[in-house]
Design brief:
alpha/beta; UDP-N-acetylmuramoyl-L-alanine:D-glutamate ligase; nine-stranded mixed beta sheet; four-stranded mixed beta sheet
């Protein structure tokens, strides 16, 4: 896969099916250095796969989500929000446990978080999940969906199914030890079992360090590439984006001039990038659209926002 390649898709019922954590984000209302100093929190819709599905649905792409929530008021809040945004919810299960939530510091850099994970781990394998995979152009999932059983087994079964059906597979390798099953080698599992099945990954620099140990950006990208025929996009915060194919290392600067809240910026990048490749752009041009989207999101509060259409977004970014 090359930076100047375009991807051509067969007609499908869905443009993107996402899988993984669906939860409540409790974001501190003030900028604080740690959660200890936080006093008030704002309840928001959260979870990276849900954010992406909503962002794309707002841009009129057809999305569905595979996840598990509790049969409680927080779970009903999440379902209502998704349905209001025209995201297909048939892949969402109601578990007997409580809806998961994450307490997050409002931040202009890297937010700190405390996860309380319950229902999002309790996903069961069902036939309609395979049907969703078969009827989408892109299958996207996160490392959260690999962190424990039973969701790990479900994710691997659907990942292998997506690979067998030649779907475009994108993966957010947002590994953190605090999220993972104790005693399980998460980084080794991701490198050996997951990345060889994936087409495109977008680690942050912090993600890369957690998975690969300390190293240079080029060394990170090369190590990721060595696991398979991957397109590697690495987000670098204020330094923008670095991407790598078999022939070239490519940089895009950040277009953000003001940072209000970093929550959901990576998801906005994924959303803009996917919209770009679905719209017929090259990988390189889609990365620009993702970068514009991330910059736009950084200037708003909360995990999701109204992203402008591609032309308006580019004009906005270029006039910064």
């Amino acid at each position: 896969m090359r930076l100047d390649d375009k991807i051509y898709f067969d007609a499908s019922a869905y443009d993107v099916v996402t899988m993984g954590e669906l939860l409540i984000d409790m974001i501190s209302t003030d900028y604080v250095p740690t959660l200890k100093e936080a006093v008030h929190f704002q309840k928001t819709f959260g979870g990276s796969p849900g954010n992406i599905a909503v962002n794309l649905a707002k841009m009129k792409y057809r999305t569905a989500l595979i996840s598990s929530i509790g049969a409680d008021d927080f779970g009903r809040f999440l379902i209502d929000f998704l349905q209001d945004q025209s995201v297909d919810t048939k892949g969402i299960q109601m578990a007997s446990t409580t809806t998961s939530m994450v307490f997050v510091t409002k931040s202009k850099e890297n937010p700190l978080f405390l996860p309380l994970r319950f229902a999002d781990l309790d996903l069961k394998l069902q036939e309609d999940q395979f049907n969703l995979i078969e009827n989408t152009k892109i299958f996207h999932f996160t490392a959260w969906a690999l962190s424990h059983e039973p969701i790990r087994k479900v994710t691997m079964a659907l990942l292998e199914h997506a690979r067998s059906k030649k779907k475009l597979i994108t993966f957010d390798p947002n590994y953190r030890d605090v999220l993972w099953e104790k005693g399980h080698d998460g980084p080794g599992f991701i490198r050996q079992k997951v990345l060889p099945l994936v087409d495109i990954i977008k680690p942050s620099e912090s993600d890369a360090e957690h998975l690969l140990g300390k190293g240079s950006l080029e060394a990170y990208a090369t190590k990721f590439k060595d696991t398979g025929n991957l397109m590697v996009m690495m987000t670098l915060g204020a330094a923008g984006l670095m991407a790598m194919d078999d022939e070239e290392i490519f940089h895009i600067p950040t277009f953000a001039k003001e940072v209000v809240d970093t929550t959901g910026a990576g998801d906005a990048f994924w959303s803009g990038f996917m919209a770009g490749i679905l719209g017929g752009k090259t990988m390189r041009d889609a990365m620009f659209q993702g970068s514009y989207s991330a910059a736009y999101k950084l200037e708003t509060m909360g995990a999701v926002c109204e992203l402008p259409d591609a032309l308006t977004l580019e004009l906005w970014a270029r006039q910064r």
